[in-house]
Amino acid sequence: MSLRAEALGTVWPERASRDGPLPPLLLLLTVVTGLVDAASFLKLGHVFVANMTGNVVFLGFAIAGASGLSVAASLVALGSFLLGGLAGGRIARRFPVHRGRLLHAALMTQLLAVVAAAAIAASGGDPLSSARRYALIVLLAFAMGVQNASVRRLAVPELTTTVLTMTLTGIASDSALAGGEGSRIGRRSLAVGAMFVGALIGALLALDVDTAAALGAAAAVLTIAVVAAFRVTRTDAAWVRYRG
After folding, report:
1. d(Cα 93, Cα 97) in Å, to the nearest integer?
2. Could you give the domains of the chain?
3. How many CB atoms lie within 10 A of CB 209?
4. CA-based, 20 to 30 A from 14: which of 65, 134, 169, 231?
């Protein structure tokens, strides 16, 4: 399959495709990841709320005494993310058959947490007080834990929505230069692009407007995803069933 055909099939999948409308919805969630991580890193004290690999590394740096990093912030983000993962796992077990209903329930939970975070950020404007900063870390990391757990259960190839290391590895290792066939390069490139766009917009909003603007944008994208996911909660198409 050509890069163009695969990219088009990801953004606008055919009705009988393997994962139905899930790929474009997960691209929206990848944009959300860029938005919230831009806001958290730039405004919440050099901490990530989605990229937990980064937080583990930051934790090591902070313990070693690196300036500008916080042991407490990294630990709070990690703990809140794990709680979100726990919640996401329980949501997945409530919907053991229908992937569309799982996604909608998880997105509703995530949206509530992000809207609450945006409201807290807007309540006092920037700069954020210490209490509000930690409240945002808790809510956003929880939301991204829910997202990661549900996306893991959905198991759509090449669309993890948060981790791009293996995506970039696949682009290089499966390329024609490496002797491969360029498998899924269209979808992988879209995932990288979605993260970049989210991070760029999130950084511009956080730096030029305020934290609430970046989180408001994330909430808006999530709202679109929630509405789209609701439309497929009653379908019985083949794609809704989990694949082992």
Report:
1. 9
2. 3-11+26-235 (1.20.1250)
3. 13
4. 169
pLDDT for 183: 65
pLDDT (average), residues 174-202: 88
Considering the chain, what percentage of its residues have pLDDT values greater than 70?
98
DSSP H stretches of helix in 44-98:
52-63, 71-94
Question: Do residues 161 and 149 make contact, with C-beta atoms less than 8 angstroms apart?
Answer: no
Torsion angle defined by CA atoms of residues 53, 78, 31 and 27, in that order, rounded to the nearest 10 degrees: 80
Note the pLDDT tens digit of each residue in 45-77: 999 999 999 999 999 999 999 999 999 999 999
Residue 67 per-residue DSSP state: T
**Nearest alpha carbon to residue 21 among 154, 115, 175:** 154
